Amino acid sequence: MKVLPFKIPKAKNIGLIYQEDKGAYFYDKLHQHDEIQICYVVKGEGTLLVGDLVNEYASGDILVIGGNQPHVFKSDTSTIQESFMMSLFFTKESFGKTFFELDDFKEIESFFDHAKTSFKVLTNKEILISYFNRLPKSDDFERFIVFLELLKLIIQSDVERLSTFLYHKKFTDNEGKRMGKVMDYTLSNFDKKIDLDEVAGIANMTPNAFCRYFKQRTNKTYFTFLNEIRVERACKLLQNKELLITEISEKSGFKNISNFNRKFKEIKKVSPSEYRLNY
Hints:
Elements: E1 17-23, E2 36-43, E3 46-50, E4 53-57, E5 62-65, E6 71-75, E7 83-90, H1 109-115, E8 119-121, H2 125-132, H3 140-154, E9 159-161, H4 173-189, H5 196-202, H6 207-218, H7 222-237, H8 245-251, H9 257-268, H10 272-278
Antiparallel strand pairs: 1-7, 2-5, 2-7, 3-4, 3-6, 5-8, 8-9
Helix pairs in contact: 5-6
């Protein structure tokens, strides 16, 4: 299966695609697709990379992934043995080029603006989940009605942005495979020492060329990205009050506690101790 681009399976001539993902983990390769994805994580947790930001996802999350936004769900199989997600896929033109341009849908314009950088829904989740639970037993027409109800409630909800970087183009197959290898290697080895020569070799590039390549496609340096992954991992570990902060530093890939404290505060705006207290 190609890393990028990713083609959403479509069995018939319909504008709205419903998909269920069940298994030990979600599809764990960096990919992008034309369609906007509205998903409900029924069961599962782990790291979610969207565009240029690293996030955590957990059971009960409702997420909107923008069209052509590179993303990957890296499931944490050490805590949950099964993952389950319901998703709806569509584009703004799925129901006709001018469908969402009609005056009837003016209030939905904000949804498409927010979807460009992807977001997590923070409020009205119980009702939204009840809508999702109707999808498995609905026919195509009923799903379309539920879809409109979802859109209406989502635009009335508080949201949190998942990315800050807009992607206006599709990756080529070669670009996708290269970036996918880098992301997969980083998400699997962030707790170990990673040097520039090593990761540039994964991309089959010289260190200088790789630095330029990565910055152009993510709007940040590789080591900024690596530190963000490590800090997100630390945030999860800080929820375990039995772990010492020095242990968390090492388990997250920081071998120096002062560097860990500095990078954590730089990214989260609070110290690890303050984060743990607030949590």
